[in-house]
Design brief:
Largest sheet: 6 strands, antiparallel
Helix content: under 10%
Order of helices and strands: EEEHHEEEEEEEEEEEE
Shape: elongated
Distance between the termini: 105 Å
Radius of gyration: 31 Å
Number of domains: 2
Organism: Nocardioides conyzicola
Protein name: PKD domain-containing protein
CATH topology of the largest domain: Immunoglobulin-like
CATH class of the largest domain: Mainly Beta
Number of strands: 15
CATH superfamily of the largest domain: Immunoglobulins
Structural class: mainly beta
Length: 225
């Protein structure tokens, strides 16, 4: 802190955003002259969480966060949209649950029969705005987690296919009621302002809603010719 002000002088504190940092400046104002000195500054890192860091730094020096932390750095340059902030945005986007299709249909299948499973969830796009910049996301199912409801499960990169292309099947060994489902793991690419596409770090898994399926035994029946 500066020395105590004399009777004829006083210290006046000013705060300034300079190249993304909060700088404190003390000016000693007297009747006939003034002098100033910068006693220090806090440099919040410009990472993907720059706004929270800026707020914390402002509070530590008793500055008003609202005067600094919602503004771009001095000179008008926009804050940088980072891969980390985009990965967090990707995790917050509502992603669709894949619809599970089971063959045979109508909620029934047979013991010792190849029951067919598939989904038709494909690639889609989303757009978000981060720090005033448009970010496009190209999203697709990277893998599927099949849970068959009898304790068995598997993971594939294939979404399965409708009969007769049997890509994802399961054979139930006992009769009863089961609740199969499919979890979808999404991956994505992004681009900012029409720039080149880049991979988004990490994936997001959306659990599927279990479907009701009854497994029954087939009974041989004689029919007329």
């Amino acid at each position: 802190m500066p020395d105590e002000a004399s009777a004829a002088c006083e210290w006046v504190r000013t705060e300034q955003m300079v190249s993304g940092t909060i700088r404190i400046k003390w000016e000693r104002r007297c009747d006939s002259a003034s002098e100033s000195s910068s006693i220090g500054y806090v440099a919040p890192p410009r990472d993907s969480d720059w706004d929270r860091v800026c707020v914390r730094s402002a509070l530590e020096i008793d500055a008003d966060p609202g005067r600094y932390c919602d503004l771009p750095p001095e000179g008008g340059a926009a804050p940088t949209v980072t891969p980390g902030s985009i990965a967090r945005a990707f995790r917050r986007i509502p992603l669709p649950e894949a619809k599970l299709v089971i063959q045979p249909p109508n909620g029934r299948t047979l013991v010792n029969f190849e029951t067919n499973f598939y989904t038709e969830q494909g690639e889609f796009t989303r757009a978000v705005t981060l720090l005033g910049q448009r970010v496009e996301l190209r999203i697709w199912p990277a893998s599927f987690g099949w849970r068959y409801g009898d304790g068995e499960s598997e993971r594939t990169t294939s979404p399965g296919a409708a009969y007769p292309d049997l890509e994802v099947t399961h054979t139930y060994l006992r009769k009863g009621r089961v609740s199969p489902s499919v979890d979808t793991t999404y991956a994505a690419e992004f681009r900012v302002g029409g720039g080149p596409w880049r991979d988004v770090a990490g994936t997001v898994t959306i659990p599927g809603t279990p479907q009701q399926l009854r497994v029954v035994e087939a009974r041989p029946v004689l029919v007329g010719g």
